Fold this protein.
Amino acid sequence: MTMSLLSVDQARERIFSHFQPVTTETLPLTGCSNRVLAQDISAANDLPPFDNSSMDGFAIRAADVADAATDSPRGLRVVADIPAGSHPTVSLAPGEAARIMTGAPIPDGADAVVPVEDTDFDNRDAGTSAPNEVQIFKAAKVGANRRPRGLDIRAGEIVLNKGRVLKPQDIGLLAMLGVANVLVYRKPRVALFSSGDELLPVDAPLEEGKIRDSNSYALAALSEEAGAEVVRLGVAKDNPDAVKALLEKAVELDVDLILSSAGVSVGAFDFVKQVIESNGKMDFWRVNMRPGKPLAFGEYRKIPFIGLPGNPVSAFVGFEVFVRATIQRLRGSLNGGRQTVRVKCEEQIDSDGRESYLRAQVYEEDGNFMARLTGHQGSGNLYSLVQANALLIIPAGVKCVPAGQEVNAWLI
Ligand code: AMP
Ligand code: MG
């Protein structure tokens, strides 16, 4: 058995180097939120696609109203009415104006829009027809309230890059650009199983000596949030045939990753090791971190396998440290994982020199992020994680962080 002490970064590198993005698929735009783009998107048209008004008002020639003021308005002849969606054919001559609605094309000859508020005609009731003449109370600069064609985006420009996780605003932009179908990476499939004779299903009454399997639920939720499709394989019973059947199910479903929790301490997982090694390989690592020192990594019939520790907080932290970025790699995302923020420790924090991930509540005070640990940090205390909104990261080699010092944190 390989049994080395690895730094967190070494373990991460060893794991990440095994993963490539999964295959791609073309989806209708409505199914693309939170998917990862598998192509660069270039704009097929200018945005805005035509010069248009940003106000309800009157399209005018700025020179005509240069001297306009409330006590000496300038009267213009209204020669057209341009609702949004219409295509004006008029061309304004000096002394002429066109009533125009927000988003409607600016007619030829006009170089500015005066909002209705600056005219004697501010009736915006639906169905009101345009006046024959309008008094303008204010001068307008050339270009005022005009959104020129191509102001935001020029046709041909690359606006979204391959590897980007599509946000709702991106979906809106793709719609503006007429991208009805998008090439995205498919969701990576992650198969989950728990192991341990003490585990009961969630709907079972508690029995003496038993606990409910919470890890597979938390890990499923984490995996889905990270963009994976989850296959739940259930609880591995303590015999090789049962474990084999469960792993074969993962193969049959052609998953991209098998994730388990518990039994990664030496010896404890022998039956899983035996089954995996009959058709692959498995290493046990000791990672210089807290919580969650033991970790298993291998493959079964070419499918990568990550074995996280069993304690619920250790399993969660192991997911954040090793699995979240793995799923990001699989789904083609360029974005590795949680964003790091700097937070100030409210109180002194003692550590044991391992890279530590501590549960904390981060709050804002006078423009700083402050952090306070939640409850006792035992790795079985899931409730302290529920009360936390961050994991503080105390680097390896550090034994004490004095009060007031800043450390990195992941907001969770
Ligand atoms: P192990 O890694 O098997 O030594 O388990 C470490 C601790 O995690 C033990 O207290 C187990 O009961 C607990 N544990 C293992 N699997 C789960 C699970 N699926 N859900 C909740 N707790 C678990
Ligand atoms: Mg166990």
